[in-house]
Amino acid sequence: MSAKPLAMGMAGGGPGSFIGPIHRIAAELDGDARLCAGVFSSDPGRSQAAGKAYGIDPDRIYSDVATMVAAERQRSDGIDFLTIATPNDTHLPIALAAIEAGVHVVSDKPATATLDEALTLRDRLAGTGCLYALTYTYTGYPLIREARDIAARGDLGRLRKIHVDYPQGWLADAIENSGNKQAGWRTDPARTGVGGCISDIGVHAFNLAEYVSGERVIELLACLAKVVPGRTLDDDATVLVRFSGGAQGLITATQIAAGARNDLKIRIWGERGGLEWSHADSQRLYLRWPDRPDQILCAGSSYLGEAARRASRLPAGHPEGFIEAFATLYRDFTTAIRAKAPAIISPLSGIEEGVRSMRFIETALQSSNLGAAWLPLID
User: Fold this and answer.
1) Contacts of 366 (CB under 8 A, 6+ apart)
2) How far apart are CA 242 and CA 376, in angstroms?
3) Which of 71, 82, 114, 148 is the most exposed place for a label (fewest CB within 10 A)?
4) pLDDT in tens, 20-73
5) Which residues, listed in sequence order, are joined to residue 8 by a DSSP beta bridge?
6) Are the beta carbons of 111 and 206 closer than 8 angstroms?
7) How far apart are CA 112 and CA 92, in angstroms?
């Protein structure tokens, strides 16, 4: 980049954070942004320690978000956007503080802790001119964008079956009771909101199903379970879905699959063929045809479409992964800020997707509580 990097602020990402350093590395990877300020913990001492580790000027390490946005607004080099990397219960107040100061927002998913909060955020964003994006990381992978183009072109024909499976095993035991910070807040309804696994990774699977297929879930039937004794939130989710184009689907997400790591997979079948992408094999997209040989498309290849090529940084055979996919989202976001054109945010998930994800969570919970009833997913 020849232009000066945009100034980034961050809420969260302090000691013990997994996602905070990921945000920082991804945002700075292409030289489009630089972390300049932050409130890295609700504890001032821990915030100062984290800021020092990030190399932030001590004068720009703040004790709370309201103080940060007010102070940064007075600076000629103040932050251009704020990244939210905190537990779900704080997403809404932090986002509101930012947009009220005219600061663009990048937020971890889900958008908020509840659907009502997401609707409030959508209403407050309207007319502000502030951009808002959610880090649905997997949408930044080159071959996910290629898969999206393939489905949109109709190469697979009318879609018939859409299956997204997201198994993890890190919560197979009650590690929240042994001091694990990440497990602690994700299993606490006061911090994470109304859903457990369905909010943490189920929304990734839901978002990916709609992002790649181009279709919207219109109806669902959910069975959510609390497998590990003592949990008050779901740690396992199975959701049957029906799509706007007539396809049937299945979204599964679990965090109690002992031995599973981060084994996200999407498979789509249409009248003419199918596609398959796995996070464990993210550099390849498999196309299955009934009347010709199967195809394997490789990331970084010249034969891919523009969206996939733009999301690649290295030639074929040089693996790119989670950090680079995250960085692609940031590059899309900073491009939109520089262009002052919200339409450019289209490859990203914004507040509308955030509202839909929260509606998915709450409808799935309602369905499960009714004994696995079919319910409409209303816009």
Assistant:
1) 375
2) 9
3) 71
4) 999 999 999 999 999 999 999 999 999 999 999 999 999 999 999 999 999 999
5) 35, 81
6) no
7) 6
Answer whether 41's CB lies under 8 Å from 56's CB.
Answer: no
Partners of residue 243 on adjacent β-strands: 217
DSSP-assigned letter for residue 200: I
* N-terminal to C-terminal alpha carbon distance within the chain: 39
Q: Which residues pair with 165 in a beta bridge?
A: 252, 265
What are φ and ψ of residue 58, in 5° steps? -55, -30
Residue keyed to tokens 């997997």? 138
Q: Which helix (H) or strand (E) holds 35?
A: strand 33-39
How much is the pTM? 0.95
> ∠ CA(277), CA(136), CA(356), 5° rounding?
105
- Residue at 196: amino acid letter: G
Residue 340 — left, alpha, or beta (φ > 0 → left; ψ -120 to 50 → alpha)? Answer: left
**Residue pointed to by tokens 């945000």:** 23
